[in-house]
Amino acid sequence: QNVCSIFCYVSSLILLLLVEAWKTLGTHSLCLDFTVKPQSRPGESWCEVQGSVDKTAFLQYDCESNKIKPLGHLGWEVNAIKTWTQLNEMLKELGQDLRMILLDMDLEKKMARGPLTLQAKMSCQLEGNNDLGSFWNFSIDGQPSLCFNVMHMEWTVINPRARGIKEKWENDKELTECLRKVSMGDCNHWLRELLKHWKEMPSRWECGQHRRKRLTTPSTCSPAQ
Questions:
Q1: Would 22 be classed as within a structural domain?
Q2: pTM of the predicted model, to two decimals?
Q3: Where is the signal peptide (predicted)?
């Protein structure tokens, strides 16, 4: 009976270790979706952000009030840790930077008749401790326009009307370095910290509601579908 008990205990321990190893080695992603307007309207914020780990939303952020709201189990699980405070500070700074980029864009006459809206999606992906890719996808007034493959420092034009913006941003070393640092450095760090608190992690990588194929050695930009 003692031998049976020991065997059952060891088997359970091995199974637990295998489950934890699968969680660690699985492919996971962190996505932050920014929607930025040049100015706020009554009852609306000039910038809103939604964050998701794999396909599950875990935070909403309002740049106007500088308030971050936890969503779901993961959001409430991590809203008291240091990473949560770091995310709050970063979202505020990035929101302001993206707003300045939007105000600096001279596309009103080319792409829109009224004030522009800029959507920016930052995503990073990990498999175990390996960085599989980091991307920025930019849409202007809902039109996919540019993609920045951070790992290869490559800009891809999706909308021909954004070609001038692509050339301007590509030559802006300060901007590209900022995007690279946040997505490859901070994003991967936050994802690792968040995964420590993530109990159920799907095996497929999904950002928001958009499914993507698993990335292994990305060489070109992967715009959001």
A1: no
A2: 0.75
A3: 1-21
